[in-house]
Amino acid sequence: MRTWVNAEINKNIKFREMKIEQIYTGCLAQGAYYIESKGEVAIIDPLREVEPYIKRAKEDNAKVKYIFETHFHADFVSGHITLSKETGAPIVFGPLANPSYDAIIAEDGQEFPLGELTIKVLHTPGHTMESTTYLLKDKNGKDHAIFSGDTLFLGDVGRPDLAQKAANMTQEDLAGILFDSLRNKIMPLNDEVIVYPAHGAGSACGKNMMKETVDTLGNQKKMNYALRADMTKEEFIREVTDGLLPPPQYFPLNVKMNKEGYADIGEILEKGTTAFSPDEFEEAANATNAIILDVRHQNDFVKGHIPRSIFIGLDGGFAPWVGALIADVEQPIILVTDKGREEEAIIRLSRVGFDATIGYLKGSFSAWKDAGKDYDTITSIPAKELKTILSKEKAPVYDVRKETEYQSEHVLDAENTPLDYLNRYMAEFPKKEPFYVHCAGGYRSVIAASILKSRGIHNLIDIAGGFADIKKSGIPVTDYVCPTTL
């Protein structure tokens, strides 16, 4: 197994005439693909850092021939532009794409030879108007697999509300187009065709995705609500658009970068890996109005951190939470990391378009403490201590999990203030009396606590271990009650 930065080669399928590798990045719930046949390579939806693809091709004594993009991605910045520059391989989009750089805009049905294989363009608009599925045919011309981008996920389909402004359409219009794409282009394919989607469970690009990342089309026809054979277009539109949460604010900025271009990752790393002494760090943070982003483990942040710094740990859903909570990709960022993880943090920030990292604290937080600088802590208690407190008094408890998690089960009388939309609830937190904050396992609650403290709200207490430990402790919780329909 090959290790990529927070990426895992989850499927490695080899046949005599082909090699298909899915490079799945858990933090983004994103799948990129490496396809090789007879010394020719195609990359589909590559990550921002491209050196691993180039190295992989060299190891196979192969050359990157094509870089296929399924659409202009919103949730991450693709590496297509840099990879094309480094390898000379052309970028290929489907019909209706209008990038600001040189690319092949393929026609529906156009075929691209790759060794003994053929990759056929299936224009499948609906998620976006340029969305395209790539059909891989083997040396005998038999349909082998589809790389479906955000058109078809496992258990779901791409949300139709992200491109409505650009397309001058409603989400219902786009959902109707997606229905036609699925019925006319994908569902007629043979059941044994393998489905390789661009995302899995946890991505904000869909709502009901399965945890698996590879499946057969036949199984999806059975399991995926959106592929029901007897489904009308009206039912599809209603079900696909129901329950869509607002997309993260950074999504349009990533689309812009993918469409118009961006700086090479090497430039971002060169700037971001500037090492600051504690005094230089403090001066740089003040001079640039940079956000101090602490990416260590939450337990370390709780014990000590630079005042007003924001915690988003590398060992959680790092990049999506950065995008959701910082939002502005041009915001200067200065890092506090564990020693040796500086470059990883910069790369993972760049994956979602945050290229304005200006440097990091040399020697990590211990250097800050050793320099005699002021630092802050977060009061954190185990769930069993909260149980004792709640048995004696009615203390305010705030649950920062998603609304669906809260609705499923929550502490009696707890308020739901989802982390994604924490700014909306700032006025609701007590100003003086102690209050308690928890999430599912302890990661999101520390993010919330860091944001609250940065806003001057210090009378909070974190519940270590989150709802998982709360249930174990015996604190009374509610069971989900289905809302009454009048």
TrEMBL record:
Protein's recorded name: MBL fold metallo-hydrolase
Pfam families on file: Lactamase_B, Rhodanese
The species this protein was found in: Arenibacter certesii
Keyword list, A-Z: Metal-binding
Species lineage: Bacteria, Pseudomonadati, Bacteroidota, Flavobacteriia, Flavobacteriales
Keyword Hydrolase: no
GO BP, sorted A to Z: glutathione metabolic process; hydrogen sulfide metabolic process
GO molecular function: metal ion binding; sulfur dioxygenase activity
Residue span, Rhodanese domain: 286-377, 391-479
